[in-house]
């Protein structure tokens, strides 16, 4: 289950996502980017194999991760990835 249920604890939220993603066999790299002078908690999270959401065809994440997370039973075809054209 990947539903979003934030808490008031920044670290607890991150640890929950780390646990969920690691259970799916994914590696997670986390850096606390919080600056004490702005009062806003910031984290940079990288999951190797995930990719930016802009079109990058043949990126394995687009095909494998939905299956690994249980969202799909089998990978989609490239033609099924974005049936609605993205217009600039």
Question: How do the helices and strands line up, and which of them pair or pack?
Answer:
Blueprint lengths: L9 H14 L5 E4 L10 E4 L13 H9 L20
Antiparallel strand pairs: 1-2
Dominant shape: globular
% residues in beta strands: 5-15%
Compute the number of strand runs. Answer: 2
- What class would the helix/strand composition place it in? alpha+beta
Characterize the main sheet: 2 strands, antiparallel
Low-pLDDT parts are: none
Helix content: 25-40%
C-alpha end-to-end distance? 34 Å
Number of helices: 2
Provide the spatial order of strands within the biggest beta sheet: 1-2
Number of domains: 1
Mean pLDDT: 80
The Cα radius of gyration reads 16 Å
**Secondary-structure element order, as H and E?**
HEEH
Provide the descriptors you would attach to this structure in a database record.
alpha+beta
Explain the overall architecture:
With 88 residues, this protein is an alpha+beta fold. It has one domain (10-75). The protein has helices spanning 10-23, 60-68, and strands at 29-32, 43-46. It has a two-stranded antiparallel sheet with strand order 1-2.
Quickly describe the structure.
The chain is of the alpha+beta class and 88 residues long.
């Amino acid at each position: 289950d990947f539903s979003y249920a934030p808490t008031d604890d920044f670290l607890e939220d991150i640890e929950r996502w780390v646990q969920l993603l690691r259970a799916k066999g994914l590696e997670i790299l986390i850096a606390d980017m919080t600056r004490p002078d702005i009062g806003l908690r910031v984290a940079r999270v990288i999951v190797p194999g995930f990719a930016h959401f802009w079109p990058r065809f043949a990126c394995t994440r687009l095909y494998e991760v939905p299956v690994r997370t249980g969202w799909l039973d089998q990978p989609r075809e490239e033609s099924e990835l974005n049936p609605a054209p993205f217009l600039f």
